[in-house]
Structure formats: structure tokens, C-alpha cells
Design goal:
- There is one protein chain.
- By secondary structure, this protein is α/β, with parallel strands linked by helices.
- It folds into three domains: 248 residues, Zn peptidases (Aminopeptidase); 94 residues, Glucose Oxidase, domain 1 (3-Layer(bba) Sandwich), CATH 3.50.30.90; 76 residues, Orthogonal Bundle (Arc Repressor Mutant, subunit A).
- The protein contains twelve helices and 20 strands.
- The strands form six sheets. The protein has an eight-stranded mixed beta sheet, sandwiched between helices.
- Helix 7 packs across helix 9.
- The model has no long low-confidence stretch (mean pLDDT 96).
- Bound molecules: zinc ion (ZN).
- The site of zinc ion has 3 residues, from loops.
Length: 426
């Protein structure tokens, strides 16, 4: 994860940009990746794909040529989407009106973006802005808007079923790590761990521009929308010492909602739950929106201040959202939960009994001596007594409190003895 983050963190990964493609190419060197392109000006649902934004350089310098700010040191140093400004002299008072700072984190550069407002500006730490030494400065922003393509990188793991599970991460947000890019790092690590995995449901891992990437992709793949079983939006996996947060889908009880809640509950971590549309509202918001109605949960690490007020993480939307302030162990655990959620969703099966009441376990060689193995025997009893018609292996695990893997292995034995048949859940 760290290698990918250090290769990409400081790229100018604006939503339509050359560095966005560069980031996808770095991912594409490690896993198979299809790059979908949606051209500038194309309408997708109610949205229009913006132009490509390129920057060759930007600076503030003293009249004697000393650089006070150089974009090459940090892509956050100009407002993302800044219009070009030809080299010109500017008075300090006027310049200060075009400099954005963070009051909350005065020693960090804030992340500002204006894609749709067509303006320009510089960003620097409040501490540095307060120290601008001279009355006049040279400034230049060498940027350009041209026709381009919004890109969506997709890694697909084909499943048995046409139904799919979509995993969403965003790689825009130049110069930042935990917001967006780290979700992509988790997804990339997951794709590598799942090499050779044959899931039940096709897994579509997507690396995109926040919100508009999903809008463009869904607009161009409307036929697959009804086939999407559910989606997971990944973000902020590496906030140090913060709880895991499950933001539910609009349905609240979709299979992914239920499985994710169970995995997190059993993880031993502190877990918070958020209502749909109340916490991170990005791609998940579009998936859950009226008329799309694909249940999309989100997983993140953040803090609940009050039922509807969330604090994302320290240094949010500033240059402090860096690799140094990113907890790799927290992200590794996040990856583990995500993998478990997918494994359970894919291993789950609907159980149809071929007997009435309860089976005679001894006759089938499945009896366990309760005097020698009381716990295992009790688990079997509780499984058998909860096998109502139509339940799934996961449902039984939830009903009985017996871990999914144990229920799964016992139910597979029942299947071997032709006592039950198993089918794909949806
Ligand atoms: Zn953000």
C-alpha cells in the first residue's frame, strides 16, 4: 500500500487530468485494468463531463525573483481547476484576497477546488501567508483547459453469476492520501490478494473521480444497474485511532449492509453506524439515489460528534492528509474486513431442506458425542433448529451466533449427505 501511495500522493490527480491517467497506469502495472473513457462535454444523466485541466507551473515570487511559493513542491499550492494567470505584478493586499488558508490547520496548505466556478487562486499555510515579506510580487499560473476524457479504471473478477458487487474508490484529490487515494490503495491490495479467486458474484473494482466517475460510468452501463447486488464505497481507511464507520445503504438491510455489520461487530474494533446520506455522501449518494436505487454502503474511519455531525479525520482537506499521518495498520485491518465481507457474500447460499423436522445425524455419520464435544454438539443443534425454509448460511450464523465458517462447513456436510440443496442467494 505504502509504495502505491508514495508513487501517487503528490500527483496532480484532478478529475480530468494527465496525472489521473498516470495514476491508473501505475495501478494497471499491478492488476489487469480496463480504462473506460467519457469525453469532455458528454452529458451523463444531468451532469456534463468537464474539460481536462493541465498545469505546467505556478509560483509567487518577490520582485527580485525569490520563490515564495512553487506549485512544483505541492499540487495543493493552487486552487484545483485554477484558470491561467499570465505573469503579472500584484500588490500584497490584492494577492492576499486570492490566497486560501486553513484556519483550523494554520501550518498546512488547504485543498481548494473550483471546477465549475472558473476562477483562480493560490493556497498556502496560514503561517506562511502571514509572513509575506514584500509589498509587491510576481505571480503566474500556467494552466490550461482542453478537451479530454474522464477516466474510470475497472478491474473485474468474473463470478459464476451475472449479478455483481461494485467496489468504489476515488483517486482524485491531488496531494492527499486518506481522502480517496488510500481507499484505492486498499482496493489495489485486495485485487492482488484475490488473484485466482472465483467468486459467486462478479466483483467490479473501480478507480474513479469522486461522484462524477460513478455518474458517467453508470450512465454508460445502464443495462448492468439492475444486476448490481450492491456496492461499497471505500474511503478514509487509515485514520489513526478512529472507529470503523459503516454508513448504511438507503435500504439499510441489503445483504451487504447485514454482512458488513456482522463482520465489523465481530472485529473487536469500535464501530459506529451512520444512516444513508448522513456521513460520506459521494459515489454512495448517487448509487442510493432515487431512480438508481442500488444499495451502496460505505466503510471509513471517522468520528461521530453527534447523530448527524461527523468529524472526518484530522487534517481533512489539507496537506496534512499525508503518508506521515496515515495509519497503515488501520488500513490493513480495514482491508481484512472488506475481504471478509466479500468472502461471506460470495460463499453464502440459500438452504433448501430435503427432510422434515430434524435429520437422524447418526444414520448419516454426522453425530457428535455431546459429552466429549459439548460446544460443537450444541452448535449443530442450534443450526438444525434454525433451518427454516429459505434461510441462508449467513442468516443461520446470525440466528445462532455460530461463526459463518462453522455453519458453512456443517451445511456443506449436510449437502454431501444429500440432506439439503444449496443455491445462490440472489
Ligand atoms: Zn474530500
Amino acid at each position: 500500500m505504502k509504495e502505491f501511495l508514495s508513487q501517487t500522493a503528490n500527483l496532480n490527480r484532478a478529475i480530468v487530468s494527465d496525472d489521473f491517467l498516470k495514476t491508473l497506469n501505475i495501478i494497471g502495472k499491478r492488476i489487469s485494468l480496463t480504462i473506460h473513457k467519457y469525453g469532455t462535454g458528454t452529458q451523463c444523466f444531468d451532469w456534463i463531463i468537464p474539460k481536462k485541466w493541465s498545469v505546467r507551473g505556478a509560483y509567487i515570487e518577490t520582485l527580485s525573483g525569490k520563490r515564495i511559493l512553487d506549485w512544483k513542491n505541492n499540487p495543493l499550492h493552487i486552487v484545483i481547476g485554477s484558470l491561467p494567470v499570465k505573469r503579472k505584478k500584484i500588490a500584497r493586499a490584492d494577492l492576499l484576497k486570492k490566497i486560501y488558508v486553513s484556519n483550523e490547520y494554520p501550518s498546512h496548505i488547504p485543498y481548494q477546488f473550483k471546477y465549475y466556478e472558473l476562477d483562480w487562486g493560490f493556497c498556502m499555510s496560514k503561517d506562511d501567508a502571514a509572513k509575506l515579506p514584500e509589498e509587491e510580487y510576481w505571480i503566474e499560473i500556467d494552466s490550461e483547459y482542453t478537451e479530454g476524457n474522464l477516466l474510470v479504471g475497472e478491474h473485474v473478477i468474473e463470478g459464476e453469476s451475472e449479478k455483481s458487487i461494485v467496489l468504489l474508490s476515488h483517486i482524485d484529490h491531488p496531494g492527499q492520501v486518506n481522502d480517496g487515494l488510500a481507499g484505492a490503495a486498499v482496493l489495489l491490495a485486495l485485487a492482488e490478494e484475490l488473484k485466482g479467486y472465483k467468486p459467486t458474484y462478479t466483483i467490479r473494482m473501480q478507480f474513479l473521480s469522486e461522484t462524477i466517475g460513478s455518474i458517467a460510468h453508470l450512465h454508460n452501463h445502464q443495462k448492468i444497474i439492475p444486476q448490481i447486488l450492491g456496492a461499497i464505497f471505500l474511503e478514509m481507511p487509515g485514520t489513526p485511532a478512529y472507529p470503523m464507520v459503516l454508513q448504511h445503504s438507503k435500504q439499510k438491510n441489503s445483504r451487504l449492509d447485514l454482512i458488513a455489520a456482522a463482520v465489523l461487530r465481530d472485529s473487536g474494533e469500535k464501530v459506529e453506524y451512520a444512516e444513508c446520506f448522513k456521513h460520506v455522501v459521494n459515489d454512495d449518494g448517487f448509487y442510493n439515489s432515487p431512480g438508481i436505487d442500488v444499495p451502496c454502503i460505505s466503510l471509513s474511519r471517522s468520528k461521530k460528534l453527534s447523530p448527524e455531525n461527523w468529524y472526518h479525520f484530522p487534517y481533512y482537506h489539507t496537506s496534512g492528509d499525508s503518508i506521515e499521518n496515515f495509519d497503515i495498520d488501520a488500513a490493513q485491518r480495514y482491508l481484512k474486513y472488506l475481504k471478509e465481507i466479500l468472502e461471506i457474500a460470495n460463499a453464502d447460499r440459500r438452504i433448501t431442506k430435503k427432510y422434515q423436522g430434524i435429520p437422524n445425524l447418526s444414520r448419516h455419520g454426522l453425530w457428535i458425542d455431546w459429552r466429549l464435544y459439548p460446544k460443537a454438539s450444541q452448535a449443530i443443534d442450534s443450526i438444525l433448529f434454525s433451518l427454516d425454509d429459505g434461510v441462508t448460511i449467513f442468516d443461520v450464523a446470525e440466528l445462532t451466533g455460530v461463526p459463518f465458517e462453522e455453519v458453512n462447513s456443517f451445511v456443506k456436510k449436510l449437502e454431501e449427505k444429500d440432506l439439503v440443496s444449496l443455491s445462490i442467494v440472489v
